[in-house]
Amino acid sequence: MSKFRKPLTTVELVEIRLRSDSRDMRAVLREIMRLRAIVSKADQLERSLGSTDEAVETIRSVLRAELDDEPSIAELLWNDLNAQ
Asked: DSSP letter at 1?
């Protein structure tokens, strides 16, 4: 059981911003966007790795499982597939 609530999608984040357009909320949303960019970069790096040994493969499997649960990654993949 995760200690975190279900991750928010981009649409949900936009809806929050529309409901609460304070300076503080904009700062929080900018930080979320920065963190989502880091998740995106981790996803790109993990996908670019070639064959690895067993220990590295275990780490990759855990990382991949975490990244696959991130809405920002699913949204990026969906956008990539639909851009073709």
From this structure: -
The DSSP line for 10-67 is HHHHHHHHHH---HHHHHHHHHHHHHHHHHHHHHHHHHH-----HHHHHHHHHHHHHH
Reported confidence tier of residue 83, pLDDT bands at 50, 70, 90: confident
How far is the C-alpha of 33 from the C-alpha of 28, rounded, in Å? Answer: 9
CA distance 38 to 47: 14
What angle (nearest 5°) sits at the alpha carbon of residue 61, between those of residues 57 and 66? 150
pTM more than 0.70? no
